[in-house]
């Protein structure tokens, strides 16, 4: 048994500028990768090429297989399929919500924020 203290891997390297369409998620159940513990991941808004072989409707509906196929393509650090398959259902639920948000227009996001009591309408 190793006595080394696990380290947390930074999901977004400091050299990567914050950008629209990049969502950071703190995992309820961290991922163990060797001696590392990944407690946060960042998901970036997918490009069209990353949706190849997937049905957008399935992603919007939160289809587990579709979401699990997309996550390795858009996660930082890049998660492998086995890590995605081992996610807790709470973490997969949050990830599915973030993926759905990527397909929403600004008007849709603003409406959802108002419904949830988190009005974020801008004055511009």
What do these coordinates show?
- The protein has 124 residues and is α+β, with helices and mostly antiparallel strands.
- The chain has one domain (20-115).
- It is built from 5 helices and 4 strands; from the N terminus they run βββααβααα.
- The protein has helices spanning 56-60, 64-74, 81-85, 89-102, 106-115; strands spanning 7-8, 22-33, 36-44, 75-76.
- Strands 1, 2, 3 and 4 form a 4-stranded mixed β-sheet that branches.
Can you tag this structure with a few keywords?
124 residues; alpha+beta; four-stranded mixed beta sheet; 4 strands; 36% helix; disordered N terminus
Helix-and-strand structural type: alpha+beta
- Compute the number of strand runs: 4
- Measured between the Cα atoms of the first and last residue, the distance is 57 Å
Count structural domains.
Answer: 1
Global outline: globular
Low-confidence stretches: 1-11, 13-18
Mean pLDDT: 85
Radius of gyration: 16 Å
Q: Helical segment tally?
A: 5
Percent helix, as a range, is 25-40%
| Main β-sheet description | 4 strands, mixed
**Succession of helices and strands:** EEEHHEHHH
| Fraction of residues in β-strands | 15-25%
